[in-house]
Amino acid sequence: MTSPEAIQLASQLDEHHLPETNGRMAVCRRCGMRTDSPLGTGHAPGEDQLARGGAWLEGERRADRIAHLRN
Questions:
Q1: Residue-wise pLDDT tens digits, 4-46
Q2: Alpha-carbon distance 49 to 13, whole Å?
Q3: Which of 5, 13, 27, 52 has CB atoms 3.0–4.6 Å from 43's, for a disulfide?
């Protein structure tokens, strides 16, 4: 069973970007989170990936804000 936190993180990752997989492994090349299948139709992070996934999203938001301020 997937926790509400994992579902929320998956939703946030899906909103940020579509999963990019190599078609053989169920891992997004962009963020490193697990996906629902090797085809990568959606993110499906495990409980062990919650902290890292949240930190990755926060870093992306920070980089976006910095880029926006520079322009």
A1: 999 999 999 999 999 999 999 999 999 999 999 999 999 999 9
A2: 12
A3: 13
Long-range CB contacts (< 8 A, 24+ apart) of 5-12? Answer: 5/50, 6/44, 6/45, 6/46, 6/47, 6/50, 9/33, 9/43, 9/45, 9/49, 9/50, 9/53, 9/54, 9/57, 10/42, 10/43, 10/44, 10/45, 12/57
> If pLDDT is split at 50, 70 and 90, which confidence band does 2 have?
confident
Distance between CA atoms of residues 71 and 6, nearest Å: 34
What interhelical angle do 50-70 and 4-16 show, nearest 10?
A: 30
pTM of the complete model: 0.89
